[in-house]
Specification:
Elements: E1 4-12, E2 16-21, E3 24-30, H1 32-35, E4 43-52, E5 57-62, H2 65-74, H3 82-91, H4 94-103, H5 106-110, H6 117-127, H7 146-152, H8 156-171, H9 176-188, H10 196-208
Helix pairs in contact: 2-3, 4-6, 8-9, 8-10, 9-10
Length: 209
């Protein structure tokens, strides 16, 4: 099994790249976010998840191991295949996936290509309250956003406060989707997330701006 590739980028195409390692070109399937960080002729390291099927061996490459781990985690949800998992990771960061799942924000997942409302709902239900996936602990590679994402991960107590704030807004007659976005935006602006009143007031301010 291949877990990592380091070599020269020979080609960057739609949904794939070729990495040259000692004269052998490895075709790697990648999401657009990873492809955007590759430059032809430059050295690159990709964290790889290898899928072995009866008729083919497919390599999926990621700029950092956190994305690779979430690629695997997403596919633990029934009917989420590699294509949908890549699409979700192109749409949401790992921190945003955690937040959307724990807040029950189906709309966030529905923004990914190939993810309809039914599948988005299943993803939120199956990932809500679950711990983030463990990476392999290898950090070499392209410039990583994992340290930023890790700092954004919200613990379960904060998620409880977020849900309460969303519920309060819904009780005020605000639609759930609008409430979810407002609370998430308020939380990003360094509001004291342990103070429900402050969080609700900040969310209302977001809605009025």
């Amino acid at each position: 099994m291949i877990g990592m590739l380091t070599g020269t980028v020979l080609m960057v195409g739609t949904g794939e790249a070729i990495i040259d390692i000692n004269g052998v070109g490895y075709l790697v399937q990648c999401g657009s976010r990873t492809l955007g960080r590759l430059s032809v002729g430059e050295q690159a390291t990709l964290h790889v998840e290898t899928h072995v099927r009866e008729t083919a061996i497919t390599l999926f490459g990621f700029a950092d191991d956190e994305d690779r781990a979430w690629f695997v985690k997403l596919q633990s949800v029934q009917k989420v295949g590699p294509k949908a998992a890549l699409s979700i990771l192109d749409t949401l960061t790992p921190a945003e996936i955690m937040s959307a799942a724990n807040l029950g924000d189906k709309t966030a997942f529905s923004r990914a290509n190939g993810v309809g409302p039914s599948l988005a709902g299943r993803i939120t239900v199956e990932l809500a309250g679950k711990a983030p996936p463990l990476a392999r602990g290898v950090t070499a590679g392209l410039p990583s956003h994992s340290s930023v994402a890790a700092s954004q991960l919200v613990d379960s107590s904060q998620m409880g406060q977020h849900k309460d704030a969303v519920s309060a807004l819904v009780n005020l007659g605000i639609g759930q989707s609008e409430a979810l976005r407002a609370v998430a935006s308020a939380a990003k602006n360094a509001v004291d997330e342990q103070d429900i009143n402050a969080l609700v007031k900040a969310a209302l301010k977001e809605l009025s701006s």
